[in-house]
Known about the structure:
Radius of gyration: 18 Å
Oligomer: single chain
Mean pLDDT: 86
CATH class: Alpha Beta
Distance between the termini: 46 Å
Strand content: 35-45%
Helix content: 25-40%
CATH architecture: 3-Layer(aba) Sandwich
CATH topology: Protein Transport Mog1p, Chain A
Number of helices: 4
Shape: globular
Number of domains: 1
Low-confidence stretches: 1-19
Amino acid sequence: MKFLRVIVAAFAISAQLPSSAQTLWKDSVYGMTEAEVLKVNPSAVKTKKGSSLPNGAVQTLEVQNIEIVKRKFTAEFYFKDKKLNQITLSLNKGSDTLDASSKWDELYLALSAKYGKELSKKSQDGILKQKLAEWAAGKTNIQLLFLAVGEKDPILQIAYHQGITQDAEKL
């Protein structure tokens, strides 16, 4: 009988949780407040000078020096209307273009192993070097981007956000 009460209680609690909770990265869920993000990411700190996204979301929190593919990344938390909108993992400064491009390849393999075949993949070589791949997991889009002009200060990032999957629900 006690076992049955535990099962019923667990079911009641799970029924109260939003069924459409959209996990972006780790335990951070789309729509969380800053306080909620800080609870699930205790090493997060307020950003001194956050950047903005084209949709108006502003970076207000970050977690520095996360090691991924033997390089340091910063997790940047973007909020729109005081709700978590996107998380971007950006390669810290110090890598050259060749290194960042190689790390994109490693991340591509890791993300493919985790999420399966990408939705899209494209690359461009020349003065502007670019590699881009995108995956979907539930309602979350994952975008892996490498961008470089010249040999210094390349951009390598993974962005977790809503997008294609949200539009697909309208079809």
